[in-house]
Structure formats: C-alpha cells, structure tokens
Write a structure and sequence with these properties.
The chain is 18% helix and 54% strand. The chain is an alpha+beta fold and 71 residues long. The chain has a single domain, classed as Flavin-binding protein dodecin (Dodecin subunit-like, 2-Layer Sandwich). A hairpin with a 2-residue loop joins strand 2 and strand 3. The longest helix is centred in the middle third of the chain and has 13 residues. The chain is elongated. The N and C termini lie close together (9 Å).
Length: 71
Amino acid sequence: MSSQVYKSIELVGTSGESFEEAVRTAVKRAGESVRDLQWMEVMEQRGYIKGGEVNEYQVKVRIWFGLEGNQ
C-alpha cells in the first residue's frame, strides 16, 4: 500500500460569467505554477452587485497537490 502526502493552498477566483467559471479560473491559474494538482474544494461563494445586477462571481477554493516523491 502506498502512502501520499498532500499540501493545500487557498485561492480566490473571479469571473464575470458564473461561479463555475470562477472555479475554473482559480484551478487553471494554480496549474500554471504548481504541479500535480489533485483535489479541490469550493469553500465560499460570493458575488458583487452593480446597478442591481450580479456583476462578478467570486469563489474561495482550497486546492490540494501531491508533494514530489509521492508513490
């Protein structure tokens, strides 16, 4: 049985389209500088209202990645 160790980071992603797109933005950006992304959890969702309409979606995301040397 193999053992693995993970590290997590928290990011805030934003989008003018949707919460889902805000999550995708955060994960994509994390993938540009961190290798071996494996899990994610949406911790918070919020939106910015402008002129009586939702103007921006924001999510706080925790992302886990495997440490180098994991089996």
